[in-house]
Amino acid sequence: MGHGPARRPRRRDLVWFAAASSLPLPWVVAHGVGGMGASPELISLLAGLAIVGGAFLLSFATELAERDIPQSLALLVLALVSVLPEYAVDLHFAWKAGEDVSYAPYAVANMTGSNRLLIGFGWALVALVGCRRQRTNELALDPRQGLEIRFLLLATIYSFLIPLDGSIGLFDAGVLLTIFALYVLRAMRGGADEVELEGPPALIDHEFRDLGRRIWSFALFVFAAYAIYISAEPFAEGLVHVGRNHGFDEFLLVQWLAPLASESPEFLIAVLFAWKGRASVGIGALVSSKVNQWTLLVGAIPIAFALSSSGFDGLPLDARQTEELLLTSAQSLLATILIADMRFGRNEALLLGVLFLGQLLLPSTEVRWGFMGAYLLISLALLLGATPARRRSFVGLLRPGGFLPVGRGREG
Questions:
Q1: Predicted pLDDT of residue 1
Q2: For residues 63 and 269, what is the distance between their CA atoms, to the nearest angstrom?
Q3: What is d(CA 204, CA 190) in angstroms, rounded to the nearest whole number?
């Protein structure tokens, strides 16, 4: 009887681990026998499930590895692993665009979709769940997240300049990768709490000694990376063919369905943190992911395109891609201003969620420009007079000396 409470979480963790491990298996088997002549719909489904399962396993492997590798290396590995599923799909499109320029819109679609989904759905959902569980209208973020917020602001400000020459070029890649490198270097200087494992990683850590844990971490990483590697191209190509075969807008399928598959594990883990009363941890993880995607992922796209095309031209942007990129920048700016004072409230989360849902359901040029204007006007209103404390915090982010936290000004 006394062991009942301990067994239930272990049983639940074992179920989670088994489910995540089994998701890639159907496509691994199908890929091994040449796809079995499957339809694009079935290929997209199986490959998409493999990416979801692989992303979960990557998160388990990374958490386990944090027990055994230096903090600085852990930070770098975490930054890379968090965007690996997105990399696999987006860089496939960027590489294909170097061979066939008609694929260029898909690279931008996947990148902008994943970034807007992360904020409009991920940030908002975690904040709403956290507020409900903690019976509060406002969540306090960890002051250390000021580092991520500052670099997110820098990348966002630069992102408005990217479309000016009609492409995402190698110069843009250099700037964004420099921002990412500076972010990693600054993060290495900070302290870190001891890792507290939960879920399947905690189960593995409890059941195996150090050597066993390291073997499991390595094996999970290799299997997950392989599953994502063999799934990215068929999943991406399958979505394009499904759109063409059924009259769907393949741009929208690539923009929203592909990121939803690759981001879902991260969203679920963040929501679970919020459900357990640790919403600030969940939001912090999503803010860090946004920095990685907005710098490292975007910066890698023109590099992949240049390598594939054997040239130095940037990934071309047409009118729609320019609108999508500017809309994503405007959303990022508003979100950064909303959390600049290290607080994130229920109403602010609803604002981001409603704006995201509106531009998602009404995908027209006029709507994109309208929502872009709404994001910018609300940002301007917040900075000019709505919340003086937030304005001071925002200015502090731009100071060379670093982040200036003044979030407590709102409590009075």
A1: 42
A2: 12
A3: 28
Neighbour tally for 196: CB within 10 Å: 9
- Read out DSSP for 282-346? HHHHHHHHHHHIIIIIHHHHHHHHHHHHTS-PPEE--HHHHHHHHHHHHHHHHHHHHTTTSEEEH
**CB atoms near residue 47 (< 10 Å):** 31
Low-confidence ranges of the chain (pLDDT < 50): 1-7, 71-72, 75, 192, 403-412
50 Cα distance to chain centroid: 18
Amino acid, single-letter form, for residue 306: A
Which tokens hold the place of 76?
Answer: 């770098």
Please give the C-alpha separations between residue 22 and each of 26, 188, 206, 379, in angstroms, as whole numbers. Answer: 8, 35, 22, 44
The residues pairing with 139 across neighbouring beta strands, listed in sequence order, are 344
**Predicted local distance difference test score (pLDDT) of residue 79:** 54
What SS3 class is residue 190? Answer: coil
pLDDT tens digits for range 188-220 = 765 545 556 667 777 777 777 778 878 888 888
DSSP-based three-state secondary structure for 140: strand
Distance CA 170, CA 62 (A): 30
Domains of the chain: 4-404 (1.20.1420.30)
Torsion of CA 210, 215, 221, 223, to 10 degrees: -150
